[in-house]
Design brief:
410 residues, mainly alpha, three-stranded mixed β-sheet, 16 helices, globular
Length: 410
């Protein structure tokens, strides 16, 4: 056999072995992270239900905040960067500590129990990323492969928590460096996310998919103009969301420099504290709450800026739903569809992830009206500029011209 033929066979065999390696590792990651993330989901649900049944638990909000700050201080993680650390771990192979997983697990459940306004998917990225990094280290993968394991963990945790596996895959590949997709992680992240999703379903989660939002608008020149106008407005809302999130810690640092005092200064509200999923469903089904999007931004900034733990994604979806159900009908869009467009577009503007946002709309609301989701999200992505929730997110490719810019989100 000629040498070139032997070389081709060797390379082909090597590729098959790599494929099998990643199916094995990513499947194992999906099983482990899916189980942990499902338990995390059940813990958050327990906390939210307990708070709803016993409203007086909101009075413990300051005490819960103090407990979280002390927990991170005693663990040597007081200056933890949260989701930003996960982004750096993927882009620059920075190590992640395993202790991040139990800390974010306990702290986020406690945040939801006492009524802190925070989500869970951002926490899932930290939970899954730290477990993925630990597994990569345990099987002695090199630095480049450990990056993929972090993304597998992110995808698995996001998928198990939110029930949107393909959104989870795209988000893990898209959020780190805007304009560059980590395609090498496509198969591992997909296997991990789908495995975790099935684990979550086996534990009784995500049996009912998505949200009910009524009929979507048909594609026409008029609805295109309406969706584009809403996308422009959602871009402004997403900029406001990001600016307030980044400003709150600075205000706290100036007026309440002691983290314990910050945590003790909060008060609560059943509608605007917690993730707010029930309120999202109420709004999509026909309820309009004019000031809800501003109040949710405020409560989330106060909560996370004070040292509570959780994510920003569901609060961003809440903000988008509240604004969309308010502005959408004014533009002539159906109430629920306006809220759905707002959810996807504000999420897109805040995370700079247009492909993820369109897949999120598909998995949450179905394929009806998908071209309008794409247009609304595209406008929001472009006009939100270089703002973003995560300060370690890099905008690699310009939103306006065919050139590299390589700047961090602000």
């Amino acid at each position: 056999m000629e040498q070139p033929t032997k070389d081709r066979l060797y390379r082909s065999a090597l590729q098959v072995l790599r494929f099998l390696k990643w199916v094995l590792y990513s499947g194992a990651t999906g099983l482990l992270v899916g189980a942990v993330a499902s338990a995390f989901h059940l813990g958050i649900d327990w906390g939210a239900h307990l708070r709803a049944d016993r409203p007086w638990v909101l009075l413990l909000l300051p005490l819960g905040g103090v407990a979280i700050v002390l927990l991170y201080r005693l663990s040597g993680m007081e200056k933890d960067q949260g989701t930003n650390l996960v982004l750096v771990a993927v882009r620059e192979a920075e190590p992640m500590r395993l202790r991040t997983a139990p800390l974010i697990f306990l702290a986020t459940i406690l945040t939801h129990l006492v009524g802190g306004s925070a989500g869970r998917e951002g926490a899932a990225l930290q939970l899954g990323g730290s477990l993925g990094a630990w597994m990569g280290k345990a099987v002695h993968l090199d630095a480049k492969d450990r990056r993929v394991m972090v993304m597998c963990g992110m995808s698995a945790a996001f998928s198990a928590l939110f029930g949107t596996p393909m959104t989870a895959v795209l988000f893990s590949m898209e959020v780190v460096s805007v304009g560059v997709m980590y395609y090498a992680a496509l198969v591992p992240c997909t296997v991990s996310a789908l495995t975790a999703f099935q684990v979550a379903q086996a534990m009784g989660l995500h049996r009912t998919p998505g949200y009910e939002m009524g009929a979507a608008s048909a594609l026409s020149p008029l609805t295109m103009a309406q969706a584009a106008a809403l996308g422009l407005l959602c871009a402004l809302v997403s900029i406001l969301f990001c600016k307030v999130m980044h400003t709150a810690p600075k205000v706290y640092a100036r007026f309440l420099p002691d983290p314990l005092l910050r945590a003790a200064a909060l008060v609560g509200s059943q509608d605007y504290n917690g993730a707010g999923d029930a309120v999202i469903r109420r709004m999509l089904s026909g309820e309009t709450i004019p000031a809800a999007f501003l109040l949710k931004i405020l409560f989330t900034a106060l909560t996370l800026g004070a040292g509570f733990r959780g994510g920003e994604i569901v609060p961003a979806l809440f903000t988008g739903a509240a604004f969309g159900t308010l502005a959408g009908p004014l533009l002539g869009l159906p109430h629920g569809f306006g809220g759905a467009l707002g959810m996807a577009a504000v999420f897109c503007g805040a995370t700079n992830c247009p492909m993820t946002s369109m897949m999120l709309a598909f998995e949450l609301f179905g394929g009806e009206g998908l071209p309008l989701y794409g247009l609304c999200c595209g406008v929001s992505y472009m006009l939100s500029g270089y703002y973003g929730l995560y300060s370690e997110q890099k905008i690699v490719y310009s939103k306006f011209r065919t050139q590299w810019v390589n700047k961090k989100a602000k």
